[in-house]
Amino acid sequence: MNRRRALASWRIVLGAIVAWPIALAWAAQGTWVVPLPGQTVVMSERPLAGVEIQPPPSLAEASIDRVRWTFHTDTPAPALKAWLCQQTFCLPLVGRQGETLRFSGRSAASPFRLRFQLPVTDHGVDRVRVSASQLIIDYRG
User: Fold this and answer.
1) Domain ranges of the chain
2) How does pLDDT run across 38-92, given as a tens digit for each residue?
3) Which of 24, 83, 106, 132 lies at 20 to 30 Å from 96 by C-alpha?
4) Is the pLDDT of residue 25 over 80?
5) Residue 133, exposed/middle/buried by CB under 10 A (0-12, 13-18, 19+)?
6) Which strands, in side-by-side order, build the sheet including 48-53?
7) What letters, b where the CB count within 10 A reaches 16 and e where it falls short, cover 33-57?
8) Superfamily of domain 30-140 in the CATH hierarchy
C-alpha cells in the first residue's frame, strides 16, 4: 500500500514538473491590438510615411509571433500600395487585410509604421482616405 502511495506521489510531482514550463509558455503569450488613425493619401511619386505606432512598455522583452492588419479606403483605389515597416524592414502588403510571419522573432518593442503610396496614374483618383485601420501583434514574452 505504501508503495502505491509513493508511486502516485511521484506521478503528481513529475506531472507538475512537466506541466510547469508549458504553463509558463502559455502565460507569456499575448496580443496587442492597435486601432490606427485615419489618413489621407494623395497622389505622389513617394510613399507617405504614416504615424509611428509605439508599442506599450510591457512589450519591452517580447518577441513577435505573427502580425495581422486591416484597412479600408473611402473610394476604390486599385493602384494604392501599402507597406508595413518596423525599423528598416518594410514588407509590401498584398491586400487590405492579411497576416504575416515575416516579423516573427523580431522585437515587439520596436515601433511599426504603415506606409502608403498612391502612384501618379490616369485612373481619376488623386487622393484616398484610409480608415478603419488596425494592427494586431501576437507576441511571446
Assistant:
1) 30-140
2) 999 999 989 988 889 999 999 999 999 999 999 999 999 889 999 999 999 999 9
3) 106
4) no
5) buried
6) 48-53, 112-117, 81-86, 89-92
7) eeebeebebebeeebeebeebebee
8) Galactose-binding domain-like (2.60.120.260)
